[in-house]
Amino acid sequence: MSTPRVFIIRHGETEWSLNGRHTGISELPLTANGEKRIRATGKALVGDDRLIVPSKISHIYVSPRRRAQRTLELLDLGCHERLGEDDGNIEHGKEDLISRVKVQITEDIREWDYGDYEGKTSPQVREERKAMGLKENWDIWRDGCPGGESPTDVSERLDRLIADIRTRFHGKAMGKKPDDEKMKGDVLVVAHGHILRAFAMRWIGRGLTEGVSLLLEAGGVGTLRYGFRSAPDGDETDSSASYEHNRIEEPAILLGGAFVVDLVDNIEKS
Fold first, then answer.
1. Contact at 8 Å (CB) between 155 and 205?
2. Taking the model in full, what pTM does it have?
3. Are 62 and 196 in contact (CB under 8 A)?
4. Residues 91, 49: contact at Cβ < 8 Å?
5. What Cα–Cα distance (Å) separates residue 180 from each residue in 2, 6, 56?
6. Measured between alpha carbons, how far is 8 from 151 in angstroms, rounded to an integer?
7. Extended beta strands in 136-231, E state
8. How far apart are the first and last CA of the chain?
9. Residue 132 DSSP class
10. In degrees, to the nearest 5, what angle opens at C-alpha 11 toward C-alphas 10 and 16?
């Protein structure tokens, strides 16, 4: 049986991501190097024999910010038209794909609203807080941002998005066989550094105030899915029999996966 996944993809490099400035509502383009690296990521990870299989994608959520939308375009998932600025469901896709890729621009996955700290680096924030007589050991996961969002604010909108994914897409995909041509369920979320790290924490039910020791580099890709549970008979001879995959109650972060055998064989032959 199949286990649907969520791929979280951080937008490519910008000038502000290079120098550590908090970038929430500000619109910045990707750097030339950022665009080049995203194209390389698409070639490496997207395809019928790759990690992200376009025909298995049920839905794509993307931030309203142009840097996230440009990243999605460069991944070459069939979204060649430039995305609009309005919220809502927008359909794009290559005619040769088994199914069109559905894209939804949503405020629920926009970057953390940094408020008064927009455009500032962490050292600048600490200096500003010191001058104001506030504690210098500012932690966004604990303190949030004055004039912006608190951890509770962020958790509420992410929980809403996660519930939407599980209700509309993953719940329907649970229990279907991997070779079922109609089987879909994978979801892409293309957004930003802080919000995607927060998304991963909320995915597994952890509070943001617990601290988030996760990293996601500009242009990075992460995988979220559901945990494995050993089969009752303890048979470990066959991975398909040794684990029960379809446990929507057991969300997990996939730290790594094995290479696809066919892909390795093709590389070795070439």
1. no
2. 0.81
3. no
4. no
5. 10, 19, 10
6. 20
7. 186-191, 221-226, 229-230
8. 33
9. T
10. 110
Q: Which two tokens stand for residue 69?
A: 């939308």
How far apart are alpha carbons 255 and 248 in whole angstroms?
A: 18
For residue 268, what pLDDT band results from cuts at 50, 70 and 90? low
What is the per-residue pLDDT across 207-265, written as a single tens digit (0 to 9) for each?
Answer: 999 877 888 999 999 999 887 543 444 433 333 322 344 566 777 776 655 444 454 45
Please give the structure tokens belonging to residue 207.
């509070």
pLDDT in tens, 38-76: 999 999 999 988 999 998 999 999 999 999 999 999 998
* Angstrom distance (rounded) from CA 196 to CA 259: 24
Cβ density class 126-141: b for 16+ within 10 Å, e for less? beebeeeeeeeebebb
Distances (CA, A) of 211 to 44, 85, 108, 245: 32, 33, 21, 28
Residue 26 is which amino acid? S
User: What does the pLDDT look like over 83-111, one tens digit per residue?
Assistant: 544 444 334 443 333 346 689 999 999 99
Burial degree of 241 (CB within 10 A; 0-12, 13-18, 19+):
exposed
Place of tokens 């509770």: 152
Question: Distance from CA of residue 125 to its chain's centroid?
Answer: 27
